[in-house]
Amino acid sequence: MKMHLSRALCATTALATGLLMAGSAMAQSTGTAVVEELIVTGSMGPRNMDGVIVAESEPKSRASITQEFISRMAPGQTILDTINLLPAVNFTNNDAFGSAGGDVVLRGFDSQRIALLQDGVPLNDSGNYAIYPNQQLDSDLIERVTVNLGTTDVDSPTAAAAGGTINYITRRADDEFGVRTEVGLGSVNFQRYYATVETGRVGPWGTKAWISGLYTKNDIFRPHDATQDPEGKIEKKQFNFRIDQDLGEDSFVSLIGHWNQNRNSFINRISLANYRARVAPVNGFQAANENINPSNTGNLRALSSFKLNETLTLTVDPSFQYVLANGGGAGNWAETDLQLRGNSGAAGVDLNGDGDLNDTVRLYRPNTTNTRRYGVTSSLIWKFADNQNVRLAYTYDKANHRQTGDVGYIVDGKPEDVFGGKDGRGRPVLLPDGTNLRRRDRASVAYLNQIAVEYRGRFLEDRLLFNAGLRAPFFKRDLNNFCYQNNTFNAYCTTQVPTIVPGTDDGTGRPLVRFPASALNSNANNLYGQPREFTRKYDDVLPNVGVSYDLTDDLTIYASYAETLSAPRTDDLYDRISVDPGPESAKAYDAGFRFNRGGLMAQGAVWFNSFTNRIERVFDEASGIAFSTNVGDVELFGVDFQAGYDISEKLNVYGAASYIESEIQDDIVDGSTVLPTEGRSLYETPTWQGVFRVNYYPTEDLSFGWQTKYTGARWSNLVNTEKFPDYVLTDVDVRFKLDRFGMENTYLQANVRNLFDERYLGDMTSNLTGTGLGQPGYRRTFILTLHAEF
Question: Are 325 and 296 in contact, with CB atoms under 8 Å apart?
Fold first, then answer.
């Protein structure tokens, strides 16, 4: 039986360093893997149940899934959708295939307050800390996903981890030559083509590697009651490779590469009122072609571990990341617009080349981000006793973050280049004074230097595990704004001479300014802060401690405490007025149990999080100024639970549930207005969540999976005057093996998403007050995949 074979492979207890090479896929960084495996014991029960629930041993709240379960989900799906069955995790997907984006909330913390990592490398945007689900590694190449619920590992190289971490691990190369291929077809013209070639061990040193390619495309799904625009398309190309080299003596080096190219059209959102009235968004021709979200992203990651002697191990994990992405858009410019003329004295710019200045021309105006990011995570680990070790860790992270808005031309209703006039990719709109037309222009360098120390030991016949550490991050932000700033989101780039506004101050002693109305300055009364260069620094010492005790061979209890820090998003520091909202911080408390006996695996926790200095956007109506500020403290409390049970050799069930309460501690002073937020709840967070899954194996060839997720109602603002309704999504997967037809390791898999065609609002845009906007949920979707291995 497949279920029992997987358990036989995983049932042994991980002892000492002999399992390092296989087990390094079980933790965040290589250093964390080594530390955790040196002295882990645990029960002799199953290590996982069909990959949907995994036996954890860390003295803190953690949940994981493995490739065995990941492969049952829709192939190619974003990994964040796949972890949606874990307790306290809520992911809202923008389509059924994982290529259109979405949002994740973990224990009441939104995605900008969660750290997403790949092999320990931070993937959050270095400017706004956003997570982009559609840019993640293909699901077939992910060995395991581990979610730290509410805290981080001591060497986590992230500025955005106030609410916890999600880390997924790339699968290692196989020892034998082989090929894996998948072809998938589905609803709304979905197509997916995927292949991985394994080299096996080759050459004099037994080097092994794989290389992988993926192409997928589909139409934008058709929301309920909407007229679908045939121009709305989603296309993704992805290439990956991995090289693994054993060095003997429990030492190794791995090099991993990833490249992802997405071409998306935005799916419009609607208000709750329009949703209830069944007024759905319509993607017009211009919207589908101009409101696009292209991205080119890639990274190189190296993992290495060197056993220096019997007691000393060094790990070094360097990385490089590249991002070129934008949110598209378009606008109309009169050829005599004042922004085009600047201080040149020219009458205007002939945008369409017809020899006059009498026209209004539509131009493509994206907000483009280009990032080059360098990092390294390293640990020196001293195992000074069989059951004790200590490590010293150092993390360095530098992100060169360039945000521009080089305007480009639209040809035949489509952008000439999806990145506009960026670096000559498309024709820039050249102005008479020698500059090019743009909507923003700023350069940021985000630094992290972090030192951490950690002690770990087992006592009382290895029943007691004690872990304690200190993490000391030092953040620095070098910021340069070359344009006039209206608020965090809107700038005005021009060589026009501004009008000084007496009695105002941009926070640096200089007055605010005004410009006559133009295409990118909609109102002549708009106030702008002047271009400036400045630096911000943040640092702290963050303790964490955890303890677990094996009451029996099957039952463990644990408790943990950790402090976390999230430095202000770079985007929040660029504003009309030079302000420093300060960092967000949290104190996380957990207590829980784990039980593993026979056919039952279960774990649960009760937790409390004291969250300080939440940063939000506020608006001062008296001055007309929007800015970022600390709006006070938030307390969060919850209960998590998950369990899996073998009913028989052919049938098992899994369930998870979570309850989350959040409470804002004070009213928010929004400029001259006091918002009644004291005692209110955070937006986006469902109070109740629950999931139930059944795995059934009637024969050796045939298997079924049924999964239902309940997501409770969610507030859309912080004053709690509007709530998006709850919903239930059911997915089904069926797999038929073709071994009996002479096609070994080949199967057909059918996935049905949203089986009952539930009508719901998923991802939301929330506010301090007022109404939110919701993403219409995808309809019932069918996907058929042929998987073959040779």
Answer: yes
